[in-house]
Amino acid sequence: MTARLEQGYVLDDRYRLDEPVGEQRCAALWRGMDTVLARTVSIMVMPSEAPETARILTAARRAARIRDSRIAQVYDTANFEDNTYVITEWVSGRSLRDLLAESGPLHPDRAGALVGEAAEALTEAHRMAVSHLRLTPDNLVWTSAGGVKLTGVGTDAALDGSVSDDPARTDAEGLGALLYAALTARWPFGETGNLAAAPLNGDGAPVSPRQVRAGVPLDLDATTDRAVSQHSRRGLAPLATPAAVAEALADFPDPTPLDLFGDTQPQPATNQAPATDRIPAVAGTPFTGQQAARAQRRRRGALFAIPAGIALVAVLAVGGLRFGLAGFTGGPSGEPSATSSAPSDSATPAGKRQIPVVSAEAFDPLGDGVEHNENVARMHDGTPRTVWYSDRYNSSAFGNLKPGVGVVFDLGSPKKVDSVLLRMPDAGAQLELRSSNSTGSSVDDFDVVAKGSADDERVELQPKKGDEKARYWLVWFTELPNTSEGYRAGIGEATFRPAP
Asked: Distance between the two ends of the chain, CA-based, in angstroms?
């Protein structure tokens, strides 16, 4: 490297070297100034004769064609005297690594939203035949302006010499790794910097996020595994492209610095971002039932439609009120309001203790994996008037398409359950209560501990003796009731009563 490359040196009468920020392979990395446009830039300088230089220049010029604001832009490339330089956008903010070091794992909504944005950006890059191949927690940045930025697209792999026979799959795995890290503060591919390695299962693959951190929603857990390990989960194929990852995460609200999900106390400011730029996180602990309920209500626009809506939802969240607003209580797909015909009393009689539900997820391993997951929080919101419904079918036997459908309730840790009281909008269902201490992708992964018939609009299932303690409880419908809206399952409230 030429000795003149020191602070204050100006490349090509335009780019001033202000502060060294690191070295990578043959390149020196600087924060600099474009003296013509008076803007801060990132400068990569390398010897023109270095074997990597031609490859890096080619990659940078290809990346310069990408016009997605979520990807750090390449502004300029050139040879100057004995050096070659690449000028890119200077990104000010906090990387995913910084966020995890400050606050621990992110709230699932935040994790899904940030990685979803990155996946959409990489989808655009792949459309231009540009890939990343080297995604790390340093490449995903929450900017001080309040947006997502992905760095190193094209250039990091060229600098490192990384290649792939399947770039789309490699980047999908990288996005899955970012999601895994955001949810658990662990890295699935071994220790990296301040992030510990994820624990491995017997096959040498990383365990699922739910096995690291209690309360990760089942759909996010499956999405992460489908990308990181390229496994099929819950009847869904592996996520082998950034576009597939983006589609799987498409329903998360746009990222926003407004904290509606977790602690409302401001986070400490850093040199790069103002104190108002907050990322809700839960510091590696299982989140509360109320937080988990919010995590299920993540359809785009539901919380972030307009500023007035944001303020209203924030007030309701602080006040501890349930979703009862017009426009939120209607059933899915144009169904009428989810008010059931069950009595109007509370779900749990006075004096009865109950075990709080951390999270719930519709379970459809033999179908498309989706049974109105957006409404599952209604089953543990404290009132039977709000109802989760399954899809409609042509017969009580699920139209002969599959043997059943159900809901998995996560109690956060193994709990001894005396009974499960189910309040339903309709009578006539046949059910099984199943349990397990680990998540499963098949109904056979859960043991049958009770069976029952919903002869009226409530049924109480009691686990058989010796099977009362478990973390995950599956309410499995084996026969559907015939309702005014067709054959479908419905639960207004599920109450878990502790064993004495």
From this structure: 74
